[in-house]
Amino acid sequence: MSIYAKVVTDSISDHGHRLTTMEVQCHRFVLAEFNTHRRFSRNSASSRAIPFQKQLQRMEELGLAYPLSWPKEQKGMQGGEEFSEESIQNLRSGWEASARGTIQMAQAMYSAGLHKSVINRLLEPFMWHKIIVSATEWQNFFDQRCSPLAQPEIRVLAEAMEVALDESSPEHIGIDNWHLPYIDEETILAVMDADELELKQEALKRISAARCARVSYLTHDGKRDIFADLDLFDKLVVAKPPHWSPLEHVATPDLLDIHYSNFDGWIQLRGIYELAAQAS
Q: Tens digits of per-residue pLDDT, 230-249?
């Protein structure tokens, strides 16, 4: 497996504000750099939440995340010239040996009964990581991370995201309509056919937020289940404290074109639910 970026949902409002949600995969060890960009709303897989054995299975399926560059040591944040091909093969072998040794130690800790929230941290340097990210402003990220001065692993990701954004055409979303990541025709039909669901549009918003929360279109059991999604949404908003961040990806154009949040010209579902919670 490797770095990728794909547009999930792309919308533009009457006022010309474009809101885009992407699904991206990157090296886990550049997540901290990715998270410094405050205009982004983002959710990603949690090392604390995923069972250890499932994390190992995922690593086996995707393969190890190797560095993209093998520069020689020099002063400063930028590496020096690349090692020779022969040396790089030796370095890759060392990286793999480190990963395998870490996995063996993690398995021993798991057998001893240590909780996944601790053990999974050992695996992070060698993992691929999936992120859902939504934004109305991307240029600062591209300026900073597409630069030759950026770490290669995040630079390649940023370049893939820039290409994905350039190649996507946003759909016009009018007032009272919604930007709904991971909602397709099949989901809409399932919701409309569900007699027990009275507020269909509200259900679609909640399902969208839940799917962003689990960072996957499918449940963790690999199934499409709108009622599992609705149940997850309820758990997000009633938690103490609530888990609001997945609700940021779901948004509606702002009639007054006011900047409320990290999105320009859009009102996030998070803001609506937070106000309701404060009023109750």
A: 999 999 999 999 999 999 99
Whether the predicted pLDDT of 8 surpasses 70: yes
Q: How many domains does the chain have?
A: 2
Number of residues written out for the chain:
280
What pTM was estimated for this model as a whole? Answer: 0.93
- Apex CA 68: angle with CA 55 and CA 63, to 5°? 25
Is 109 in a helix, a strand, or coil?
helix
Cα distances from 65 to residues 25, 73, 97, 203, 261, in angstroms, run 11, 21, 13, 37, 34
Q: What is the CA radius of gyration of the chain?
A: 21
User: Residue range 107-118: average pLDDT?
Assistant: 96
User: Do 108 and 22 lie in a common domain?
Assistant: yes
Q: Which domain holds residue 248?
A: 174-279
Buried-exposed string 104-128: b where 16+ CB fall within 10 A, e elsewhere: eebeebbeeeeebeebbebbbbbbb
Contact indicator for 130, 24 with CB cutoff of 8 Å? yes
Residue 92 shares a structural domain with residue 20: yes
pLDDT band at 258 (very low <50, low <70, confident <90, very high): confident
**What is the C-alpha separation between 127 and 119, in angstroms, rounded?**
13
The last residue of one of the domains, among 167, 197, 215, is: 167
How many C-beta atoms lie closer than 10 Å to residue 65's C-beta? Answer: 25
Residue the block writes with tokens 């983002």: 42
* pLDDT tens string 127-156: 999 999 999 999 999 999 999 999 999 999
- In the numeric block, the tokens 């597409």 are attached to 146
Judge if 18 and 114 occupy the same domain: yes
- Do 12 and 147 lie in one domain? The reply is yes
